[in-house]
Amino acid sequence: MRKTLKNSRRSPLAAIFVIAAGLILSGGGYAVATSAVENTTANTAISAQEQIKEGERLFLANCATCHGVNGVGTAAGPTVIGVGAASADFQVSSGRMPGQASGPQMPPKPVQFTEEQIAAIAAYVGSLGVGPSIPTADMLEANGDSSRGGELFRINCAMCHNAAGAGGALTEGKWAPTLKGVSAKHVYEAMLTGPQNMPVFNDANLTPSDKKDIITYLAYIEANPSAGGYELAGLGPVAEGLFLWIFGFGLIILITMWLGAKSN
């Protein structure tokens, strides 16, 4: 018996059988894995195409009046070719678009679409030309350097949005909105796309790390109240000076009048 097994192991046919079995198993496994990957990729591509098609339908029904068929733009609205999915996502998910009326600036209003519809519109606009993509979740985490973010914010943003992100008036009826209560996603997309009067801060101007630091700074000042007490909405020295003139000096004048009347 032992001799028979020993002879079979040494037989050239046994070696050929083992090699053939190994080739069949490895080849079959590779074919199955490749087929699964190809099916997954195909399903993803079909899903993406369906989303873009749905976005096109929504765009034609709600946006093409101003932005034109295929996003080429009209006299009533600019082209959206090349603005990227991030721009469409910001404008629609913040309620600024579709616009209800023309004016110096589009004010936010209640959002008119579901998250799925917004994603579809953004996908369609993104397919019209190369532009900024929607930031991923890891890009929006407020785990950067808040001190450095504050420095970057004061250099690049405070002249319009105020050092505390409270917003402020601009020219010709325009304004820089407050950043309190604004999501990290919208802050990042605004820096990336430069909506309305805001300049574009692409990755060459402010790197993704810089943007994360700014988001961290805004989250910090929103979570930590002013150490000096009531901040008068954080509007700066004009509001503080006005408060002093009206209430501070007003109180001094009233006290002076009261003392004068009492002495008489």
Automatic annotation (TrEMBL):
MF terms (GO), sorted A to Z: heme binding; iron ion binding; quinol-cytochrome-c reductase activity
Catalytic activity reported: a quinol + 2 Fe(III)-[cytochrome c](out) = a quinone + 2 Fe(II)-[cytochrome c](out) + 2 H(+)(out)
Enzyme superclass (EC): translocase
Transmembrane segments: 242-261
Stretches assigned to the Cytochrome c domain: 50-129, 144-222
EC number: 7.1.1.8
Entry's localization field: Cell membrane
Protein name as it appears in the record: Cytochrome bc1 complex cytochrome c subunit
